[in-house]
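Customer escalation, tier 2.

The customer says the design service returned an amino acid string that "doesn't look like it belongs to this structure." They asked us to rerun it and document both sides in this ticket. The original structure tokens are below, unchanged.
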């Protein structure tokens, strides 16, 4: 090795691949003996070496390329293809959306395994499916309408058991709770319904203050002052019982 410097290729050998793809400097440095005028009397043999002074150029580190800078600027952008996992997830979501749309009003006609795949749907998907089942009516602003067609309470309870996704629970809370109460159908199962609804972590783990605010935000008394008040008390009672059993 030359005393003044190390060639670029030799300097590159000082680097090795680390845990990550980056190149890191090795600890086993190449050494050379110090010049005679730098040596001291009685110096130890292991101290007679100094580290090399490598000269490194960027061209020796970067891999060679046959594309000129001009060609790089004028070349078209690379088409990024979705990975296989993204394609599979998209297909699964589309199949789940189609299945939920077909069975929304009578979900128990679908197989339980098929219903469990509905967990791939977002809250916006459920709202779109609900609106499509209303003959073109849009309930996105959640105005109450006694003519809205909704699944029975027992059907919704079954879906919550098979598909306890946060998206579906949020959709039921925000868009079906008041409608089910207003239509007063299958009220014998209403206690089971709110127990299943409040049992989900997205609701049961709320603080008491946040839960009461969430209940008030539903404006259940707008449906019927007496019935709405009873529903609010039932929700709070179920929440307290579940919170006590949890903590």
């Amino acid at each position: 090795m030359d005393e003044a410097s190390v060639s670029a290729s030799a300097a590159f050998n000082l680097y090795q691949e680390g845990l990550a793809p980056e190149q890191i400097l090795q600890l086993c440095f190449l050494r050379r003996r110090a010049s005679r005028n730098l040596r001291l009397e009685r110096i130890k043999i292991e101290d007679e070496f100094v580290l090399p002074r490598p000269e490194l150029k960027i061209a020796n580190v970067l891999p060679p390329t046959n594309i000129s800078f001009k060609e790089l600027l004028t070349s078209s952008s690379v088409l990024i293809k979705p990975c296989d996992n993204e394609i599979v997830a998209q297909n699964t979501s589309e199949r789940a959306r189609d299945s939920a749309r077909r069975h929304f009003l009578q979900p128990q006609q679908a197989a339980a395994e098929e219903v469990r795949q509905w967990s791939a749907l977002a809250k916006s998907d459920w709202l779109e499916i609900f609106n499509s089942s209303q003959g073109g009516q849009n309930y996105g602003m959640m105005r109450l309408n006694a003519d809205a067609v909704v699944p029975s309470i027992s059907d919704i309870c079954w879906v919550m058991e098979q598909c306890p996704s946060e998206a579906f629970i949020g959709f039921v809370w925000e868009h079906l709770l008041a409608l089910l109460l207003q239509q007063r159908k299958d009220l014998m199962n209403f206690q089971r319904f709110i127990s299943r609804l409040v049992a989900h972590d997205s609701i049961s783990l709320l603080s008491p203050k946040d839960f009461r605010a969430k209940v008030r935000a539903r404006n259940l008394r707008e449906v019927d002052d007496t019935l709405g008040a009873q529903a609010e008390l039932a929700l709070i009672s179920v929440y307290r019982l579940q919170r006590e059993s949890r903590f």
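Tier 2 assessment: The sequence is consistent with the input. The mean pLDDT is 78. Strands lie at 15-17, 23-25, 32-33, 49-50. Sent an explanation to the customer and offered a walkthrough call.
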